[in-house]
Amino acid sequence: MQANRAKRKTPVTLRDIAAETGLSVSTISRALANNPAIAEATREHVQQTAKDMRYRPNWQAASLRSRKSNIIGVAVPDIENPFFAALATAIQRAAHAKRCSVMLCITDDDPEMLSEAVEMFAGHRVDGMVVVPHESATDLFATPLEEGIPVVAVDRRSNSPDVPSVVSDPRPGLEAGIRALMENDDITIGYLSGSLDTSTGRERLQVIEELGAELKVDISVYQGTFDQRDGYEGTMSLLAKDVNAIIAGDSTLTMGAMQAFCEQQLEISQEIALLGFDEIPIFRYHNPPLSTVDQQVQRLGEEAFELLIGEDKLSGAHPIVIPTVLHDRESTYLR
Predict the structure, then answer these.
(1) Domain named HTH lacI-type: which ranges (predicted)?
(2) Beta-bridge partner residues of 102
(3) Which of 57, 124, 143, 176 lies at 20 to 30 Å from 285 by C-alpha?
């Protein structure tokens, strides 16, 4: 039997597994689907036999039967940005757990590239789309929605009333972080703001301004984009204003600030305090470990996927909001 398997060139079918195990095709099908109606021992035996025979499910045939592709489209601006890489990974893992595949597109935050991605997803008849939207893409999702393809916006709010959003609330994490910075004597804070043509950039700056007024602390703002170079240039500009604490508006701005500190030979938590944004592994292992505002990216991705495949009618009126949390480490305290 082993020799025959080695020579086999045609794909293994359910009938082949049935012949090998002496069970019916329907029992094989249900066992591979983990149907609890099939005894656990039988399921394990069938699944091991299928693995030994190198069985691969015929997803195309299954899609034709169910009229579903079991594929979702995911569009993010920049996979080199640690946050968006983590977001795409979180969505992919959530999809994999539900036996869905992911078609990933990188848009470079370009509305035309996002439009092309949406058209490609629709052309492949994906079961749904999870996208990081662009501010200028107002009618972009009208066609897929008319064709019955659901769309969910993640990280940024959608400006379409028919597209729901899953976003983070920057206030809890930023407030806790600013309060931690204020425990230092003679603290002077600067904020590296990201693009105001994104809902995330506007909301984070608004929260910074509100918290500055509420907590009676002056916060100098450098207005830039979500880019490491702007993080570097913004930090150099704020240092010229004699700030001794920097709050970064995202992970790339955080890395830009760290680059400037290194160039200026400023030791974090000795001569300068830093509150980073996004819980990136390298920030945890930095010496000293960086305090960060965590958007809970895993939850963002999971919630976006679950909303996409859920049975509730999708609406943009009431976004799902995930609170940020502070990971309070050494970088916010001057010794």
Answers:
(1) 12-66
(2) 72
(3) 176
Tokens 């769309």, residue? Answer: 151
Which residues are CB-neighbours of 260 under 8 A, at least 6 positions away? 231, 232, 235, 236, 239, 266
CA 61, 62, 65, 67 torsion: positive or negative? negative
Range of the domain at 236: 169-296+325-332
What digits encode the pLDDT tens for the residues 18-38? 999 999 888 998 898 888 889
Strands 189-193 and 219-223, sheet pairing: parallel
- Asked whether residue 178 falls in the same domain as residue 250, the answer is yes
The pTM of this model reads: 0.80
63 belongs to a structural domain:
no
Is 308 among the domain residues? yes
**Residue 18 shares a structural domain with residue 107:** no
137 Cβ partners below 8 Å, 6+ apart? Answer: 111, 114, 115
CATH number, residue 48: 1.10.260.40
Question: Nearest-CA neighbor of 98 among 327, 323, 306?
Answer: 306
Q: How far apart are CA 128 and CA 148, in angstroms?
A: 9
> What CATH number is associated with residue 181?
3.40.50.2300
Chain mean position to CA 94: 11
What does residue 322 show for φ and ψ, rounded to 5 degrees? -100, 125
Residue 82 belongs to some domain of the structure: yes
Q: Do 227 and 271 fall within a single domain?
A: yes
E strand or H helix at 260: helix 251-263
Mutual angle of helices 171-181 and 199-214, in 10-degree steps: 40
Domain-ending residue, one of 20, 38, 57:
57
3-class state of residue 222 by DSSP: strand
The H or E element that residue 269 is part of is: none
For the chain, residues with pLDDT lower than 50 are 1-6, 64-66
